[in-house]
Design goal:
mainly alpha, Golgin candidate 5, TMF_DNA-bd
Length: about 140
Amino acid sequence: MEWRLAFLKPFLVQPSSHHWISENILTQLFIRAKADEIMKLMNENEQLKVVIEDLRVYAFTNERDTLRREQNKKSYAATLVKKKDEIITQVMAEGEQLSKKQAFQEAQMRKLRSQIRELEEEKKGLLTKLEVSHF
């Protein structure tokens, strides 16, 4: 295409010196060269549009993938939080049961200690009676 323009420049600058080529032919050649150049530019423009659209698709795909990864991380974190909450609830329930069990056992121990004291006092009283009755 460039060679056509280079070829035509001398004819356009000095058309009278080359009488065997008419101005009409020169004009047609120049129009054809310009049309070819315009077609080439249009093709390049279309190719650039395709490349730009490919880049946009690539960028949107990357953004989508990034958002999915972030969503998966958040979803995973939410699942972990839910599991930890369940574990905390279970541990708190177990702790409450153990606390009740401990309170019950402590009450039982107080009763048993009280009974031991009573039995020891009864034992002292009986030993005292036994000693008194032996003498």
